[in-house]
Write a structure and sequence with these properties.
Blueprint (H helix, E strand, L loop, with lengths): L1 E5 L2 E6 L14 E6 L9 H11 L4 E6 L7 H4 L1 H7 L4 E3 L3 E5 L2 E5 L18 E3 L15 H10 L3 E4 L9 E4 L2 E5 L6
Parallel strand pairs: 2-3, 3-4, 4-5, 7-8, 8-9, 9-11
Antiparallel strand pairs: 1-2, 6-7, 10-11
Length: about 180
């Protein structure tokens, strides 16, 4: 579990829980982020159970980014977005600023197909997949790496590569963290 104090707020982030979210003990936090793969193979029952659990966690703000195993967000995006409770912020291809902290997400599940336009300063870039060459076992997204190099977020949080679960590195002044809760 990733935890960081940033601008006098506590940020807690997880990813790749694959239906095992109820096994986690989430501490009280200002922001709780989940960077995708809440379920296995698009299991709608697991997805609904995840949102029931996530919406009640001890965080003032809860932010969710879909992963490649959260298939309804790709196959039936309108329906899937309707599953997200009001207490949860579903963030995809947009930014949000809360308490002077900016969060931006692009749909890299795990690859980013189109390079997004340049945007204002990003505090936390949230994706499911990693950028190429960064905690990625050589299979990360080259477009995402271009975007990260151009934008220079303070943090880039992601999951997807279980073999790098809970690893954190700093490169070129950017803190990268793989949030996977389940290692292989």
């Amino acid at each position: 579990m990733f935890q960081e104090n940033y601008k006098k707020k506590t940020i807690t982030a997880i990813s790749d829980t694959h239906g095992n979210h109820r096994e986690l003990k989430i501490p009280e936090t200002d922001f709780l982020i989940h960077c995708g793969d809440t379920c296995t193979d698009g299991n709608e029952t697991q997805l609904k159970d995840f949102f029931d659990w996530f919406g009640t966690q001890p965080a003032q703000y809860k932010i969710f980014v879909a992963g490649n195993h959260d298939l309804p967000f790709d196959l039936e995006p309108g329906y899937a977005a309707g599953l997200v409770p009001a207490a949860v912020i579903y963030l995809e291809n947009r930014s949000i600023v809360i308490n002077d902290i900016s969060f931006y997400s692009v749909a890299a599940r795990p690859w980013l197909h189109d390079l997004p336009p340049q945007i204002e300063k990003i505090g936390f870039l949230l994706t499911h997949g990693p950028p190429y060459t960064i905690l990625d076992r050589g299979i990360g997204c080259k477009n995402l790496l271009k975007f990260v190099k151009r934008q220079k977020p303070v943090y880039h949080l992601f999951g997807h590569i279980h073999q790098h679960a809970q690893q954190h590195i700093v490169r070129d002044g950017i803190s990268f963290a793989n949030l996977c809760c389940l290692g292989l």
